[in-house]
């Protein structure tokens, strides 16, 4: 994936997802990490789109958090990006 082709906001969200996965000790950066960061991002496109669709943002955030808590974790330097985001 060529990160330079992404918008600044997309790059920020992706980096935040990687950072969050590492902070939590997750073995991989999963799409749900990116979803969580997009839901928390200020000034991005996701929140306005969800508002136009009358989507329950609080529920989405809660479900994303629940899904992340179920992911495997490691301690040390084993966490990082893996196949799940590499396919994106």
From TrEMBL:
It comes from mine drainage metagenome. Pfam families: Clp_N. PROSITE patterns: CLP_R. This is Protein containing Clp. Residues 3-88 form the Clp R domain.
């Amino acid at each position: 994936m060529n990160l330079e082709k992404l918008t600044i906001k997309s790059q920020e969200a992706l980096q935040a997802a990687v950072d969050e996965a590492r902070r939590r000790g997750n073995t991989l950066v999963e799409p749900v990490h990116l979803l969580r960061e997009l839901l928390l991002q200020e000034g991005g496109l996701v929140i306005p789109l969800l508002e136009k669709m009358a989507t329950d943002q609080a529920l989405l955030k809660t479900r994303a958090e629940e899904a992340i808590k179920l992911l495997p974790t490691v301690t040390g330097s084993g966490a990082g990006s893996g196949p799940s985001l590499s396919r994106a």
